[in-house]
Write a structure and sequence with these properties.
The protein is α+β, with helices and mostly antiparallel strands. It contains six helices and eight strands; from the N terminus they run αααβαββαβββββα.
């Protein structure tokens, strides 16, 4: 699935200012308010827009940011990534090539950093680590680089496999449902109708 020009422009403006009204956004990009509304709804349903949140300056609330780099054996990589992800002050975890991880640690005090490092020292899965304080940020942009024609990866609503070609769509109860093939579409419609009727579902039986 590809982003067209309208979708790309909508995403760019929402990424810059999620508080912009659909009416103002429509005027800015030259489409109607209902068009903006329907496009945003479709992008939300596809999982392209995952939510809306306020951007808070950590320096304004006197918090410091550190970058922690960790190396481990390949067999420990997933366990270590999970452990780091569960720490509240770890705001981002990146799994890198070469059995390495990098995380962004936000701390409100020296005690928080020391406590985190003490916890890190106790993890047997770690071969080595380093920590560097962020002195200043010279550029910070939203994560996604939006442009017309980029691919959207949508998982099939039934089998959860990525849809690589044009999806089979079902319009039900005012919402668009995306399926990878006619087989999944048929099974999904049947199950959807059964759920609406309150018929119990059998687990473990789906198209693959």
């Amino acid at each position: 699935m590809k982003l067209d020009e309208t979708d790309a422009r909508i995403l760019k403006h929402l990424q810059e200012d999620a508080r912009i009204s659909f009416r103002e956004l429509g005027k800015t990009i030259g489409v109607s308010t209902p068009t903006v509304s329907s496009r945003v709804k479709a992008l939300e349903e596809r999982g392209v827009i995952r939510g809306y949140s306020a951007l808070i300056d950590t320096e304004a609330i006197q918090e410091t940011t550190s970058i922690v780099s960790v190396e481990c054996q390949p067999k420990h990589l997933e366990k270590l990534a999970k452990s780091l992800s569960e720490k509240e002050n770890v705001r981002e975890v990146l799994v890198l090539s070469g059995s390495k991880l990098m995380c962004r640690l936000v701390s409100e005090s020296e005690a928080t950093i020391n406590s985190f490092l003490a916890w890190l020292e106790g993890l047997e899965e770690i071969d080595r680590y380093s920590i560097d304080r962020v002195v200043r940020t010279t550029k910070k942009e939203p994560d996604a680089v939006i442009s017309e024609g980029i691919s959207i990866v949508v998982p099939c609503y039934l089998c959860r496999k990525p849809i690589t070609d044009d999806p089979v769509t079902l319009k039900m109860d005012g919402r668009t449902h995306y399926l990878c093939c006619e087989t999944c579409s048929k099974l999904y419609r049947e199950r959807y109708e059964e759920l609406k009727k309150g018929i119990p579902q059998e687990s473990g039986k789906h198209h693959s």
